[in-house]
Amino acid sequence: MSADDRLTGTLESLGLGPETGVTPFPDTPTPWATTYAITAGAVELVARLVTLRLSDAADIRAEFEVARLLGEHGLAPEVRHADPAAGVLVMDRVADAANVRAPALWQVVTLARTLRRLHAVPLDSLTETSRLHTRKRITASTTVTALTDGLPRLAIYPEAIERFEFLREALQRLGVPERLCHHDLNPGNVLFDGSRAWLIDFDHAEAGDPLFDVATALLSFGLDETLRAAFLETYFGRPATGPESARLELLTCLMLLRYGIFALSLLPAGMRDQLSGWTPEMVGDQPFDFAPLDGESRDWLVFRLSLSFVHAGLARFAAEPAVRALETLGLREPSLAGAR
């Protein structure tokens, strides 16, 4: 079934006629879904069409259930239509809302409040046990291992996977109570209207350490020390403790490595022979800048982003703050953390 067929069927089920306006949103670096703005008189909606060949039925059901639940809690746009079999989700369009890359203080505060509310949603509110984040992690590591095998210039990726797995397992040993997490909280997945933040796109949502979302927000929005302090004060209701700050540092390393590994896994196998030609100039210092260069294809944009994330993650993990964080939390291991 084509995207057009799915959209046509959705419009009919919503009682919207042929005069309805349908406008695609710009492509994103990831191929999981396409999104359309729907306008029919005073009715303004957003349709998300999942790429069916890249998702299984259980994952789509889980994603749509999270979207509906968070819409009911007022954390996300309200869901008006959900058809997991067709991979179609229709939500309200938030009036006068937009993505913001450099949020003001009030926006930072509202995002922190929104995250605090997200992490308070009871996990037993979900009938589907979401494994979206876990399945993507496992698939990405397997794909990247095969893609980089035998390519010395991509040896940074096996190293990234090794560090990622060490961090993931070490942080799990802390026994932090899990909460419902977004797991992809970059500026493209947050909308701000005139008064608050809204969360969108839940194809990575799953139970996890809530500070993963906090770490992602702090870095992806590029918050300076003043805004960072305001965010944490709002989220916790107090300044972060030493162990919380240590967790945030290590989760930032984990998040950067995860984005880098995941991004490389999205590349087609046919690009394998070209990947060894990367140059240091491709590694940017702003890994969350998703804008393509002039004439850059989406695949090369994704590869460049992957390199930037992996290099940033490994460098951060090797730096003194991460070493201190491991020691603070009692997670230091000579085989990894000490071999620097």
Sheet of most strands: 5 strands, antiparallel
- CATH homologous superfamily (4th level) name of the largest domain: Aminoglycoside phosphotransferase (APH), C-terminal lobe
How many domains? The number is 2
Beta-strand share of residues: 5-15%
State the CATH topology of the largest domain. Answer: Aminoglycoside 3'-phosphotransferase, Chain: A, domain 2
Protein name: Aminoglycoside phosphotransferase
Keywords: Transferase
Domain Aminoglycoside phosphotransferase: 34-242
InterPro entries: Aminoglycoside_PTrfase (IPR002575), CcrZ_PhaseVar_Mediator (IPR052077), Kinase-like_dom_sf (IPR011009)
Features:
340 residues; Phosphorylase Kinase, domain 1; disordered C terminus; globular; alpha+beta
Describe the secondary-structure layout:
Layout: H1 3-13, E1 21-24, E2 33-40, E3 43-50, H2 57-72, E4 79-83, E5 88-92, H3 105-118, H4 132-148, H5 156-172, E6 179-181, E7 190-192, E8 197-199, E9 206-208, H6 210-220, H7 225-236, H8 242-265, H9 298-318, H10 320-328
Antiparallel strand pairs: 1-2, 2-3, 3-5, 4-5, 6-9, 7-8
What can you see in these coordinates?
- By secondary structure, the chain is of the alpha+beta class.
- The chain has two domains: 3-92, Phosphorylase Kinase, domain 1; 105-328, Aminoglycoside phosphotransferase (APH), C-terminal lobe (Aminoglycoside 3'-phosphotransferase, Chain: A, domain 2), CATH 3.90.1200.10.
- It has ten helices and nine strands.
- It has helices at residues 3-13, 57-72, 105-118, 132-148, 156-172, 210-220, 225-236, 242-265, 298-318, 320-328, and strands spanning 21-24, 33-40, 43-50, 79-83, 88-92, 179-181, 190-192, 197-199, 206-208.
- It has a five-stranded antiparallel β-sheet with strand order 1-2-3-5-4, sandwiched between helices. A two-stranded antiparallel sheet has the order 6-9.
